[in-house]
Design a protein that fits this description.
With 503 residues, the protein is α+β, with helices and mostly antiparallel strands. The chain has 16 helices and 16 strands. It has helices at 71-83, 181-198, 223-230, 248-267, 313-321, 327-338, 342-349, 352-362, 367-384, 396-407, 413-426, 430-436, 445-458, 460-468, 474-483, 490-501, and strands at residues 13-15, 20-32, 91-92, 95-98, 108-111, 121-126, 132-144, 148-150, 159-161, 168-174, 210-219, 240-245, 275-280, 285-291, 301-302, 309-310. It is elongated, with a radius of gyration of 30 Å. The mean pLDDT is 92.
Length: 503
């Protein structure tokens, strides 16, 4: 279990013309469930398929077609709830949310308004500066995704692609516990990380597999604390919802822009109207999508084609027993087991593939040394070339082999970097490369001493300077390393220089 201590981060404060204002943010995150088939049909969920090729009769709302629930999607929602330490509701139900849109063939969306599959949970959101915010999850419900309307293919017509119609979404609804743009982005990142560890959502925001509706309001300092004490929303300002955000950067920008818009209205004597807005990153502004007065009456009612969903506790317990080690627990274990810093452990556990790679490298080796090579050398090189850890040309076994050669004093740190470059670009077994190319470190003190004696004899003036100022002895170390092609054992060289020059 996580055994780390964090302070609560301070809320974001924006200075207005009259007052300082604090932000209050809640989020509704739509996460596409990782499954091969849709929520109520056997149609494929493959991304990038030909338009309207992944559509079953029920997705297209053909007459007489009835939905049949996908058990695996339910399992994925339960798994996500368990990963967020949430309550799993053994009985839930589906409702119809009625509205018209061209890419919604049925004229309604099957969702869970009144009885969601998952209840209250929590997410620890670390800010990287020794602070963390505990964000409460209100609920997670399952629902169908809509299709996609395409407006930029023809100047006179719009096109509809129903491939996404009926794909299972999990809507993860938070309490208004987030207090700034950076926290909002960190919250999304943490949710994404947890779901990727669980294998319940791939978190690909570019493909629309993870997107968020962001609720933003402002309040005066002290008002939020009153809300926390009473749970009375009247202490907070009127919220506005920013729809369909699928970029961490744009989420932060939109929150800042919307908060400043609300501050200007309130300080100008106006009233913020509750409404749904869209963010325009090109203009750096939010604009009204629909007001509260214009909001649809969705006319929710229980879906008559679907019985209430009842699951057994033993089934939930079996899913819980098979959960993988989650990011917080893995990070705490890396710190305690491998002696890593909080920062290094955070970097290594950011992605499940990175954590697995590190553990394979660190197995039976010095954890700190392994972390240093994985983060600084490998991750640094991969980032420079815009590659992912799954594309690494250096395997864990190869990197582990380089570390073994360092630990056995077969090669120096400098030679190790040259060796890493060879393995990265050419491949091969590190030990064999060292043997074949004569890269082994010179540990024979007799040979090192002979080289040092030659350098001392050739540089009497430098010797005198070094005896007066011991800091100049480093020059001799450099000359020995240069003369041996960097192969001399640095520790042995330093010891011999100190002995010879009395420094």
């Amino acid at each position: 279990m996580l055994d780390l201590t964090y302070e609560m981060p301070k809320p974001k404060t924006i200075a207005g013309a009259k007052h300082d204002w604090e932000l209050v943010i809640g989020m509704e995150v739509h996460a596409q469930v990782s499954s091969n088939a849709k929520l109520f049909s056997g149609a494929s969920t493959q991304f990038g398929a030909e338009p309207n090729s992944n559509v079953a009769f029920v997705d297209a709302a053909m007459p007489g077609m009835l939905p049949v629930i996908n058990e695996y999607c339910v399992e994925q929602a339960v798994r996500t709830g368990l990963g967020l330490k949430a309550n799993i509701n053994l009985k839930s139900a589906f409702d119809r949310k009625n509205y018209f849109y061209p890419d919604l063939p049925q004229g309604y969306q099957i969702s869970q308004l009144y009885h969601p599959i998952v209840g209250e949970g929590e997410v620890l959101v670390e800010m990287g500066d020794g602070t963390a915010r505990m964000v409460r999850i209100e609920r997670i419900h399952m629902e169908q995704d809509a299709g996609k309307s395409i407006h930029d293919m023809d100047p006179h017509m719009s096109f509809v692609d129903l491939n996404r119609t009926g794909v299972c979404l999990m809507e993860i609804v938070s309490r208004p516990d987030i207090r700034g743009p950076e926290e909002a982005a960190a919250y999304i990142a943490k949710l994404r990380q947890i779901m990727r560890y669980l294998g319940t959502c791939d978190g690909n925001m570019q493909n629309g597999n993870l997107r968020a509706d962001v609720n933003v309001s402002i309040c005066l300092p002290g008002a939020y604390e009153k809300y926390q004490e009473t749970q009375d929303f009247s202490h907070l300002g009127t919220r506005c919802e920013i729809k369909n955000m699928n970029s961490m950067r744009f989420i932060q920008q939109a929150i800042e822009v919307e908060a400043r818009r609300q501050i200007a209205i309130v300080e100008g004597g106006g009233t913020v109207e509750q409404e749904t807005r869209l963010y325009d990153p090109d203009k750096g502004e939010t604009r009204s999508m629909r007001s509260k007065e214009e909001a649809h009456d969705y006319r929710y009612f229980p879906d008559p084609d679907l019985l209430p969903l009842e699951i057994e506790q033993t089934w939930v317990d079996d899913i819980a027993a098979k959960l993988p080690e989650l990011p917080d627990d893995k990070k705490a274990r890396f710190i305690s087991e491998y002696g890593l810093t909080d920062y290094d452990a955070s970097v290594l556990t950011a992605e499940v593939e990175s954590a697995a790679y590190f553990e394979e490298v660190a197995k039976g080796r010095n954890g700190k040394l392994a972390a240093n090579w994985v983060i600084n050398e490998l991750f640094g090189r991969l980032k420079k070339e815009d590659h992912d850890i799954t594309d690494s040309p250096v395997s864990p076994a190869q990197l582990g082999g380089i570390i073994d050669l360092i630990s056995s004093d077969a090669i120096s740190g400098k030679i190790a970097k040259d060796l890493f470059e060879i393995v990265y670009t050419e491949g091969g077994d590190p030990a064999q490369i060292v043997e074949d190319r004569g890269m082994k470190q010179v540990t024979d003190t007799g040979a090192i001493e002979a080289t040092l004696d030659e350098i001392i004899a050739a540089n009497p003036a430098q010797v005198e300077k070094a005896k007066v100022n011991p800091k100049l002895a480093g020059w001799f170390v450099g000359q020995v390393m240069k003369a041996t092609g960097g192969k001399a054992n640095p520790k042995a060289v330093n010891e011999l220089v100190s002995k010879k020059l009395g420094s």
